[in-house]
């Protein structure tokens, strides 16, 4: 049996990546920018540590470490076709598994080393892990929702990715602060 001849893939047109954005799209991007800030403030209200600087540093550490494996959460193929999709799906799956523990480690490490010990460090890390997982799911939903609003425009892609990473880091901080019991000061 002779192999079937393959046809070359010819796209029907390039997407217009510099498309103008509506005022509603700009407003939605601006409103979602406030979510990580609000969650860092909320972290000061749920735990025993009410220092805004400490919780902001924990969120920043979680965000920074989440951005390392998390960039693979937003890999989109230019022209999805055939076996090339397996690479994108594999990268996305690996990032889904690796990003929350890494972000939780950043938040937990900053909280434990720089700002004081917890009575039960394992429970504090599990809280950060749970918060990072919820933050990742919220970040992915926010990223894709804003991407849907922006259409084919790629102008705000960096902002959407940053917002998703900051939701992961601030989610880890809320979880860490909520589950942590600070060691009494001597």
Element layout with pairings:
Blueprint: H1 23-46, H2 52-70, H3 84-114, H4 121-150, H5 157-179
Helix pairs in contact: 1-2, 1-4, 1-5, 2-3, 2-5, 3-4, 3-5, 4-5
Characterization of the model:
The protein is mostly helical and 186 residues long. 68% of the residues lie in helices and 0% in strands. The chain contains 5 helices and no strands. The protein has helices at 23-46, 52-70, 84-114, 121-150, 157-179. The protein is flat. The mean pLDDT is 83.
List keywords for this structure.
mainly alpha
SSE-based structural type: mainly alpha
Give start-end ranges of low-pLDDT stretches.
none
Please work out how many helical segments DSSP would assign: 5
Summarize the amount of helix as a percent range.
Answer: 55-70%
Average pLDDT for all residues: 83
Shape: flat
Number of strands: 0
> From N to C, what is the helix and strand string?
HHHHH
Q: Whole-Å distance between the termini?
A: 82 Å
Specify the biggest β-sheet. Answer: none
Q: Approximately what portion of the residues adopt beta-strand conformation?
A: under 5%
């Amino acid at each position: 049996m002779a192999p079937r001849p393959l046809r070359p893939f010819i796209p029907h047109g390039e997407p217009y990546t510099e498309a103008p954005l509506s005022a509603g799209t700009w407003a939605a991007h601006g409103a979602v920018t406030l979510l990580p800030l609000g969650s860092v403030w909320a972290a000061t209200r749920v735990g025993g540590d009410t220092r805004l600087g400490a919780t902001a540093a924990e969120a920043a550490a979680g965000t920074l470490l989440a951005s390392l494996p998390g960039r693979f959460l937003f890999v989109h193929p230019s022209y999805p076709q055939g076996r090339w999709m397996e690479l994108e799906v594999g990268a996305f799956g690996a990032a889904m598994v690796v990003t929350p523990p890494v972000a939780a480690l950043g938040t937990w490490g900053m909280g434990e080393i720089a700002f004081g010990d917890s009575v039960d460090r394992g429970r504090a890390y599990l809280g950060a892990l749970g918060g990072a997982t919820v933050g990742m799911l919220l970040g992915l939903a926010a990223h894709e929702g804003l991407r849907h609003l922006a259409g084919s425009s790629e102008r705000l892609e960096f902002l959407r990715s940053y917002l998703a990473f900051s939701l992961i880091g601030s989610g880890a901080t809320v979880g860490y602060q909520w589950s942590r019991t600070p060691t009494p000061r001597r």
